[in-house]
Predict the 3D structure of the following.
Amino acid sequence: MREGDEPVATPETVTGSRSLNALLKMLGGIERLGNRLPHPFWLFVILAAVLSLLSWGLAAAGVSAVNPATGETVAAKNLLSVEGVRMMVGDAIENYTSFPPLGTILVVMLGVAVAERSGLLAAVLRSGVSRVSPRWVTFALSFTGMVAHVASDAAYVVLIPLGALAFRAVGRSPILGIVVAFVSISAGYDASPLVTPVDAILSGLTTAAAHTIDPAYTVTPLANYFFSLVSSVVLAAVITLVTERVLARRVEQMPVDPDADEDDLGSLKLTADERRGLRAALITLVVFVAAVTAAVLPSGSPLRGEGGSIVQSPLLTSIAVFLGLAFLAVGWAYGKAAGTVTRSGDIPGFMVHGIREMAPILVLFFAISQFLAYFKWTGIGEIVAIDGAGLLKSAGVSGPVVFLGILLVVTLINLVVTSGSAQWALVGPVFVPMLMLLDIPPEYTQALYRIADSCTNAITPMSPYFVMALGFLQRYRRAAGIGTLASMTIPLSLTLLVVWTLLFYVFWWLGVPLGPGAPVP
């Protein structure tokens, strides 16, 4: 083709253009629908009001069900009755303070805040992508994205520009680096080789939902650890394969603007202080793990449970305490060696900053905790779970088919409701007990949710981090729009959804435990 000639439109390119336009219209519709939704706090307030009216109608109709696990009859109770109003007013404080994820996430975040504010997490992420050959840069960046989940939403701010720098440093397009970093964090959000704050939140909500059927059931933050660890490696490999085989060719058609502004994106190079801090953090982590291991080895250790059990022991049931202490120790050690912690008063200051950043979640937790308490008190969730399980049993629907249905429902919801904790608080109280009545452990339901809650994060314009990634992309290519980013994230997101689902089925069919102490079907 001579310079200046227009490319010839072929049936394939026309069809592809129409498909992309249809997809962009769908994404635009999702964006408009999502923008009409209230803040998650008010969403749960509205749901509580709807629940009140629903409970009045069901109680008046005498709706009930027999719990096959206990043999007790569960009748719908009216929230608008005298007893219901007394419960809502009298138990409001207890509903909040006894909310399972609240204490767990606060304890973990006290330690994570020290690791983050001292600069440890950013240094670890930069170290993960700074010393790799061009051949491995895609896998290194995508796996670093899996590790970055320990930093929660801060991972987006740190790793996306680092992705651009990493690819530029090895002579590849920074646009591709941005896409790989963004998808690794967002579409793989619930997979990590480390235990993350998300594990603490989800396990607390799952425990609360499981109490509908078994008040003694506990789901620990480690309940999905084996599955999450394997998933992080598999997803990083899938992202690498799709990027190199598909996206790299597409990015070749997207030259970087000659006057792209890259001066404020930082540097990959670690300073001598940072390297010294990382060495100190690693030594501290090894010592901490060795100390905990030595403490739990004796059969009479206070960290063991009844009869010397490891499964039902303070080590696992209170794992949030150990996680918080581990982050605190390594963050402090890094800060002292790197010079970012100069006095003991810096540590509580870092913790205060971490709790301050948790304020939006704490406010949302108040609304969620009240709604879930109302939902449990009315018995509606238990009735729906019992009747739903009975219907599935009578229809002969097996677990694998149910799994696909849940995946589809949650995946569609996730396009609009992008808050993972809010979404699980909505569907968990129904799905967890319903599947428990089908002899499916809560840990499997939670793992299934993790898949559906993650993969479409990278394609929904409702996510604020989709907009953030687009902003970084436009630094290199000002003409880029939502369609530009979506055209590159969609192949990755859909492939991850398929492969991650297949991995879940492998764990299910082989009876592999999802985490330490987790039951198998």
